Amino acid sequence: MIAVWKQLEPLPRVIETPAVILGGMVAFGLAYALLYRSVAAAWPVGIHPRAWRLALVIWLATVFSEFIGSLNVLRQPLPLSVVAWVGR
């Protein structure tokens, strides 16, 4: 694991360009804050509005996983990552 972070080329994006990854983390933090703010009032009545909100929570979690793993550590190209995020 240490070799992946410090020795094997190319190094993860967080090592080479930390501002990009930190900016992405801030963006995800803001997205979750807005989501939680919308849920804080109370879950809406009805199954469909609740299902859409839950689906958004799950989608954001999977996109965050792809952002940290595939885009950062494995150096997947950004356009390919966007395709994966939209297809989820």
Task: Describe the structure concisely for a colleague.
By secondary structure, the protein is mainly alpha-helical. The chain is 77% helix and 0% strand.
Give your account of this protein's structure.
- The chain is mainly alpha-helical and 88 residues long.
- The protein has one domain (2-86).
- The chain contains five helices and no strands.
- The protein has helices spanning 2-6, 13-16, 18-40, 47-73, 78-86.
Map the helices and strands.
Layout: H1 2-6, H2 13-16, H3 18-40, H4 47-73, H5 78-86
List how many beta strands DSSP finds: 0
Q: How many DSSP helices?
A: 5
Gyration radius (Cα, Å) is 16 Å
Q: Report how far the terminal alpha carbons are from each other.
A: 28 Å
> Could you state the order of secondary-structure elements as H and E?
HHHHH
For the largest beta-sheet, the strand count, sense and barrel status come to:
none
SSE-based structural type: mainly alpha
Low-confidence blocks of residues:
none
Helix content: over 70%
Determine the mean pLDDT.
81
Rough shape?
Answer: elongated
Total domain units: 1
User: What portion of the residues fall into strands of 2 or more residues?
Assistant: under 5%
